[in-house]
Design goal:
With 322 residues, the chain is of the alpha/beta class. It is 36% helix and 7% strand. It is built from 16 helices and 8 strands. The protein has helices spanning 2-8, 18-25, 30-35, 42-47, 60-63, 68-82, 97-105, 122-128, 148-157, 170-173, 181-189, 205-214, 233-239, 258-261, 271-275, 301-306; strands spanning 56-58, 88-90, 112-114, 137-139, 163-165, 195-197, 220-222, 244-246. It has an 8-stranded parallel sheet with strand order 1-2-3-4-5-6-7-8, with no helix packed on it. Helix 11 packs parallel to helix 12 (205-214). It is elongated and about 65 Å long. 40% of the residues are buried.
Length: 322
């Protein structure tokens, strides 16, 4: 009898309040959230569409080599689900100006933005930088269409920026003359930097010293592959005792990723969303997502198949940050 009463007191998983389910779902991978959870039951399918589950979106590997139209649809769907609460976004190979604009329009809470290998230009950066004022981490590595002008605009608009990744592909810089224009843009507009990555960059010793003298809070500098830089180690240790410098040789390793340091996501309270004026968020309300999700909130077959392709091999064409 006692055993039966104990069993009757147990609550079913589908009876948990949506906010509680949302907290649990944030610990799952993106693949599980978009392909598994919506198929469990209707209450879970509903809960996984709530903004709580989409404060952090990392599709960097999935998007590598993805066709632009599929990538655009996925980004629009996931960012729309965040309902203004997006704090962390990592995606590569974005091609269309419309999507850069869409990201910026939904960046009111964005703190960390990783956009490697994207086709944004100086003019696109000028158009969207004003809406990225809250970010503290930015990765624009391998973005070969932007230059010093874009970095200057970023620095002037992103006053809270503490970490910048501007690594380059060695094939894009091999045999080219040294240029310090980007180094000067960083030095003159990003005084709060603590973490800076410039691997395989066309920078000289003069450019690095300019950065060091204008960024007094800098704690980490990655200059691996920057063959035009020759620093006096004793001078650096005496002048900048808190600074860790890697390179120019690429044999050094560094275990910490600033992406983790500067993009902490706090799922503190559902009131965070209420302050932003969030109303009811239904599974099927967004017209922009037509054809992406079915009537029960499940991803369409074409995009879902992308999650089961060999994404572990997707990065073979581009080396990671050294």
């Amino acid at each position: 009898m006692y055993l039966m009463e104990g069993v009757s007191d147990l609550r079913s998983w589908d009876e948990l309040i949506p906010d509680a389910l949302g907290v649990i779902f944030t610990n799952l991978s993106l693949q599980e959230r978009v392909t598994v959870i919506p198929r469990v039951c209707k209450s879970w399918a509903k809960a996984v569409t709530e903004p709580y589950c989409w404060q952090g979106i990392d599709i960097n590997e999935w998007s590598n080599g993805c066709k632009p139209d599929k990538l655009d649809r996925m980004l629009e769907m996931l960012i729309t689900r965040s309902s203004g609460s997006l704090k962390k976004l990592s995606v590569s190979d974005v091609q269309t100006e419309r999507i850069f604009t869409f990201i910026a329009e939904n960046a009111c809470s964005l703190r960390a933005l990783r956009l490697p290998r994207c086709s944004m230009s100086d003019s696109i950066v000028e158009h969207i930088a004003g809406r990225l004022s809250m970010i503290s981490f930015l990765d624009v590595s391998y973005c070969i269409k932007i230059g010093a002008s874009a970095l200057e605009i970023i620095g002037k608009n992103c006053k809270l920026l503490e970490a910048l990744c501007r690594n380059m592909h060695p094939l894009d810089t091999a045999g080219k003359p040294l240029q310090d224009d980007e180094a000067y843009a960083i030095a003159n507009t990003m005084p709060k930097l603590k973490h800076l990555e410039l691997a395989y960059h066309l920078i000289s010793t003069s450019g690095v010293l300019k950065i060091l003298s204008h960024c007094p809070k800098l704690e980490f500098l990655d200059q691996r592959g920057c063959w035009g830089v020759t620093l006096d180690n004793m001078y650096v240790k005496q002048k900048f005792p808190k600074l860790k410098v890697l390179g120019p040789f690429v044999l050094d390793t560094y275990g910490n990723d600033a992406w983790d340091d500067y993009s902490d996501i706090s799922y503190s309270s559902e009131w965070d969303f209420m302050d932003g004026g969030m109303g009811e968020y239904d599974v099927d309300d967004s017209e922009s997502n037509d054809g992406v999700w079915d009537d029960e909130g499940r991803l369409d077959d074409e995009l879902q198949f992308r999650f089961y392709e060999g994404i572990e091999d997707a990065g073979m064409y581009w080396p990671p940050s050294p």
